[in-house]
Amino acid sequence: MNVLVRNAIAIVSPSGSADAPSSSSPSHPPRDLRVTNGVISQLGRDLQPAPGESVIDATDCVIYPGLVNTHHHLAQSILKAIPAGLDKPLGDWLAAVPYRYWPAIDPDIMYSAAIVGLSEQLRSGATTCCDHHYLYHGGGGQAVEEALWQAAEDLGIRLVLCRGGATTSGSHRGMRGNAVQPETLAQFVDGLERTRRRYHQGEDNAMRRLVVAPTSLIHSTTREDLQALAGYARQHALRLHSHLLEVPFDEQQARERENLSAVDYAASCDWLGSDVWFAHLVHANNEAIGRLAATGTGIAHCPTSNCRLGSGIAPVLEMAAAGMPVSLGVDGSASSENASMVQELNLAWLLHRAQGGAAATSADTLLRWASVDAARMVGLPALGEIRVGAPADIVLYALDQPRYWGLHTPEWAPILCGEPVQVRAALVNGRSVVSNGEVTGIDLPQMRARVAEASRRLLERAG
Ligand SMILES: [Zn+2]
Asked: What are the start and end residues of every segment in region (Disordered) (predicted)?
């Protein structure tokens, strides 16, 4: 865990944080970084290795804080580009792909999917992954969840398990159409409690976190159950997460059923606050944004998935201007085949310029959303910055390929140039999770065969 990283082109941390390039002496910015017992202990130039330290050569690399992905569905990592859902909007796609296949996902298939998805996270520079995992049904799903924790353990990545699920199939076509039985509220809470006791860590730099996250705020459960789940979360200082306003159907349902806007309904269920973040919010209007901002409620912005499903473009510039916390998520790979945080950074950087002009987004803002702001949103405020005293979650992006030759702002290359990035090395708590461009926790040929077998079984079981 004692490491010296030397000779980087630049060490980049979001502006405003200690030791960020903008706050360092411009003529002598740090190029070396020392890690002691998993913590960044020194930033400087020409640092010399101490006895017992291993050395990582960062020549031709820029160093970023490990990125924090605030919304994923790892189970979908073996459901990419299923033909039946390729050109479908959200509702039809949910029924044709995730809900069509998930009853067939056993622990071994889940483990394979999680290894694929988490490897992609590490390979793109994410060191913390929030997985919105919802494969629970009346009386089942715990063994599948265990496989997810095991995969994260084997790869050394931080995992925030957003424990999804439903207590009613109500307006959810995907559940009803595929005969997925909801849990009772008691089963849902029992599952949360089991996981909280076994895995949840409360520290600012936890490796394992639990979040209370019924799958859809509008379609998965009732007002009373949402209030009970919010009460459970706050009793145990757990964060809250769900899907909201990805499509206009959420607003329609809230108005028809509750005679409230979707965001007012969330408020009436105790589901707004600085401990809550929602995925998507594509169809949040100004009134909704004002209410979300006033309560400190955050967004996991998932631009690739929103494009892929034709859902629209979330108004994140308006949200940020109103003071809402913004973060980025890759969403599941069944609706975002890339599953790369760099893809999300690059696409968000471009997309909002297309709407708002060339000064609408900056690389620095994007990095902030994907690192320190995301870390605070999910309750891990020690993460997301490169500063002395912070946990050593760092990523080395190599810029030695021809695609970077001729580039004049290498510090922003991963965001401006997008995929494919080359992560030469990555550390989580100072522990190596990517080395010489390879994810260290897996045997690639063996894993490839296992994933192929899992995919074959999945198709066979789903008929
Ligand atoms: Zn999602």
From this structure: 14-33
Predicted confidence band of residue 137 (pLDDT cuts 50, 70, 90): confident
What digits encode the pLDDT tens for the residues 95-114?
888 888 888 899 999 999 99
CA of 211 to the centre of ligand 1 (A): 15
Query: Cα 164 vs. chain centroid, distance in angstroms?
Result: 15
What pLDDT sits at residue 171?
65
Asked if residue 30 lies in contact with residue 43, where contact means CB atoms within 8 angstroms, the answer is yes
Q: How much distance in Å is there from the Cα of 139 to the middle of ligand 1?
A: 23
Burial class (CB in 10 A: 0-12, 13-18, 19+), 154: middle
| Separation of CA 18 and ligand 1 centre (Å) | 33
Sign of CA dihedral 118, 124, 127, 133: negative
pLDDT confidence tier of residue 24, bands split at 50, 70 and 90: very low
| All structural domains of the chain | 3-65+388-437 (2.30.40.10), 67-377 (3.20.20.140)
Instruction: Give residue 242 CA to ligand 1 midpoint distance, Å.
Output: 8
Q: How far is the CA of 281 from the centre of ligand 1 (A)?
A: 11
Separation of CA 302 and ligand 1 centre (Å) = 8
